[in-house]
Amino acid sequence: GACINSRARECKACQALKKIAALRWSETLGERIQQIAREASGITAQRSAVVHPLKYASF
After folding, report:
1. pLDDT tens digits, 1-54
2. Is there a domain that residue 2 lies in?
3. Where are the alpha helices (DSSP H) in 1-59?
4. Does 26 fall in a domain?
5. Which end of the chain, C or N, has fewer beta carbons within 10 A?
6. Does residue 33 form part of some domain?
7. How many domains does the chain fold into?
8. What is the per-residue pLDDT across 39-54, written as a single tens digit (0 to 9) for each?
9. Residues 6 or more apart from 59 whose CB is under 8 A from it?
């Protein structure tokens, strides 16, 4: 929504805050994705090590 302080555009403070919030959010999201990826690759590695002989079984 538009900033209270200006009708036409958001004030600089709001724009700055939004940018900071977006950066923080994308950083935490990126970290979470990396964490999930690490966990998934760890699980996949364990699974493939265990399941390798049964490679064609449906897991």
Report:
1. 455 655 556 677 778 888 888 888 888 888 988 898 888 887 666 665 565 565
2. no
3. 12-51
4. yes
5. N
6. yes
7. 1
8. 888 766 666 556 556 5
9. 47, 51
